Amino acid sequence: xxxxxxxxxxxxxxxxxxxxxxxxxxxxxxxxxxxxxxxxxxxxxxxxxxxxxxxxxxxxxxxxxxxxxxxxxxxxxxxxxxxxxxxxxxxxxxxxxxxxxxxxxxxxxxxxxxxxxxxxxxxxxxxxxxxxxxxxxxxxxxxxxxxxxxxxxxxxxxxxxxxxxxxxxxxxxxxxxxxxxxxxxxxxxxxxxxxxxxxxxxxxxxxxxxxxxxxxxxxxxxxxxxxxxxxxxxxxxxxxxxxxxx
Length: 246
What we know:
This protein is α/β, with parallel strands linked by helices. Helices cover about 25% and strands about 35% of the residues. The strands form 3 sheets. It has a 7-stranded mixed beta sheet. It has a 6-stranded mixed beta sheet with strand order 6-7-8-9-12-13, with helices on one face. Strands 10-11 form a two-stranded antiparallel sheet.
């Protein structure tokens, strides 16, 4: 009990890795002060949602640009899930780097691509579940969450929390979040979504990062704020709040 998980809503600048790392660090410091144990950032948060430049900016697990996040996770004692393209021998993956308090780094790569992404990225076929404080957290990235098989397979693997980094625009927000709300109800799990609130080559993402429980929406950021939506486990169930970063 008292386990706390958060989804971070930040504005990522296209291709500006150093600036985006600063935004990540600001959110991590707030998360640490708020006793959050597991913090998830939006899709491709380290470079912005920019498919055309992803191959040039792709990361490996031992990339020196990631050291600051690895150190922050260890020093603050929390898991950090940051979005970035992952280098491969072919097209990169749309990935998440998962930094653990013990200094470990693992990755998750998007399994289900949008058709427009297939020109720039490769799909992956491996799940990534992380156990923290007796909770099992399944990681997802955007279009994964629109595939019923993905969440079902994660739940069958033991997940009781399903968290996605995303880049959702206003046009898709209502449909996508109804799906996430349905997962929370259907499977009796906690569901979270971290969305950007900045412009990208794919349009304007609409923020409104949120967390749902089986009873419905627990908390939601607005469209523009830099914030963490956090949910805390308690004997009576999950409670949630929005924590400003700036």
